[in-house]
Design a protein that fits this description.
By secondary structure, the protein is an alpha/beta fold. It folds into two domains: 6-242, Aspartate Aminotransferase, domain 2 (3-Layer(aba) Sandwich); 244-361, Alpha-Beta Complex (Aspartate Aminotransferase, domain 1). Helices cover 37% and strands 15% of the residues. The chain has helices at residues 6-27, 34-47, 58-68, 86-93, 138-145, 200-209, 231-240, 244-262, 289-298, 328-336, 348-361, and strands spanning 51-55, 76-79, 97-100, 103-104, 109-110, 123-129, 151-155, 163-164, 167-168, 175-179, 193-197, 214-216, 219-220, 282-285, 337-340. A seven-stranded mixed sheet has the order 1-11-10-7-6-2-3, sandwiched between helices. Strands 4-5 form a two-stranded antiparallel sheet. A hairpin with a 4-residue loop joins strand 4 (103-104) and strand 5 (109-110). Helix 1 packs across helix 7, helix 2 (34-47) packs across helix 7 and helix 3 crosses helix 6 (200-209). The protein binds pyridoxal-5'-phosphate. Pyridoxal-5'-phosphate is lined by residues 57-59, 83-84, 86-87, 129, 155, 157-158, 179, 181, 191, 193.
């Protein structure tokens, strides 16, 4: 059994993906060409955002978003300690300081109620992470900022396709980013990402910044980065895109089946009011996490821990001076969380086996 069955997915979509790639090979346009533009147009339409920019990774899309909204050395950016490192890495790479705020335990998302205490005159932005495949509490986060000049960035690297009260992930003001890392809900065959915004000024900045700060060839108005999505990855994504909505429906069904069959033995994920869930990860909580993972492994059932050590306790962020106990909800989640096999190609019998073994473990 695969944690995420990318082989079965490739077998199912192979011919469409190959013909998309073949067109790129024949055209020899590998950077900033028609495939990337078509993908940007399609995903802008899908999310509802006015502008979309293919980027070299989700991490680079985050860096570009922060550059575009003007995050500078000395600024503070509020975010969650319970996320993949890239979220806070992007802040640090711009010379700004990540300021962590603890999570709300049922969704694992930043707790909007705890944000006001972290706001200072230097707070420039908040990165809300739509972890595991459902949107963070975007309206509440916006509300606690009031009329302060704080930009909100959605790290939607795990939540493309999810919606909240009718708004698609990556289409909340002011900027949203996603990732096409192979294991994300929409994955390419290498690194890739996208930045979305409906703000014309931010869009124009991202357009030039991702291409070495040039809006006009060999005229560099700003110091930018090489942050473009390449045409072969765009082709792969165009080959997969026709099946994406259908995959999300299947994932939701698999999530529901886990919910119904495991809710009495472990804490199953909660979908917040107004949200849809794309289950980038189907993550349960149990105080016997390590024991359960070892038990499932004995039967060839793969699991994963997202994430075993919150960011405030990582060596890379030791200079921030945080200590154990600073963010107790994030720390508790790190001890109890376990992700179960999830993909649109997880077969019914295989999921049945996961359910049976989890139940068996708890007697
Ligand atoms: C995957 C991920 C990223 C980084 O995306 P890459 O494409 O791997 O650079 C950032 N934030 C979160 C929450 C992620 O899950």
């Amino acid at each position: 059994m695969q944690f995420m069955d990318l082989k079965a997915q490739f077998a199912a979509y192979e011919s469409g993906i190959r013909s998309q790639i073949e067109e790129v090979l024949q055209s020899t346009r590998f950077i900033l060409g028609p495939k990337g533009m078509e993908l940007e147009n399609r995903l802008a339409a899908y999310t509802g955002a006015r502008h979309a920019f293919g980027c070299s990774s989700g991490t680079d899309a985050l860096i570009l978003a922060l550059m575009a909204i003007g995050v500078r050395p000395g600024d503070e950016v509020i975010t969650t300690p319970f996320t993949f490192i890239a979220t806070a890495e992007a802040i640090s790479l711009l010379g700004a300081t990540p300021v962590f705020v603890d999570i709300e335990p049922s969704t694992f998302h930043i707790d909007p109620g705890k944000i006001p205490a972290a706001i200072t005159p230097r707070t420039r932005a908040i990165i809300a992470v739509s972890l595991f495949g459902q949107c963070a509490a975007m309206e509440e986060i916006s509300a606690v900022c009031g009329d302060r000049d704080i930009c909100i960035v959605e790290d939607g690297c795990q939540s493309l396709g999810a919606s909240r009260n009718g708004t698609m992930s990556c289409n909340f003001p002011k900027v949203g980013v996603t990732s096409f890392f192979p294991s994300k809900p929409l994955g390419c065959f290498g690194d890739g990402g996208m930045a979305f915004t409906s703000d014309g000024v931010v869009a124009d900045r991202i357009r030039g910044l991702r291409n070495h700060g040039q809006w006009e060839r060999y005229r560099h108005r700003m110091v930018g980065i090489n942050g473009r999505l390449d045409e072969i990855q765009a082709a792969v994504l165009l080959g997969k895109l026709p099946y994406f909505r259908e995959e999300l429906v299947i994932r939701e069904g698999i999530g529901r089946r886990y919910d119904e069959n495991l809710g009495d033995v472990v804490t199953v994920p909660v979908t917040a009011r107004g949200n849809t869930h794309v289950y980038a990860q189907y993550s349960i909580r149990t105080s016997r996490r390590d024991e359960l993972a070892r038990y499932l492994d004995r039967f060839g059932i793969p699991t994963a821990v997202h994430y075993p050590l919150p960011l405030h306790l990582q060596e890379a962020f030791r200079h921030l001076g945080c200590v154990e106990g600073d963010f107790p909800e994030a720390e508790a989640a790190s001890r109890e969380i376990l992700s179960l096999p999830m993909s649109a190609f997880l077969s019914g019998p295989d999921q049945g086996e996961v359910i049976r073994r989890v139940r068996e473990f708890f007697g």
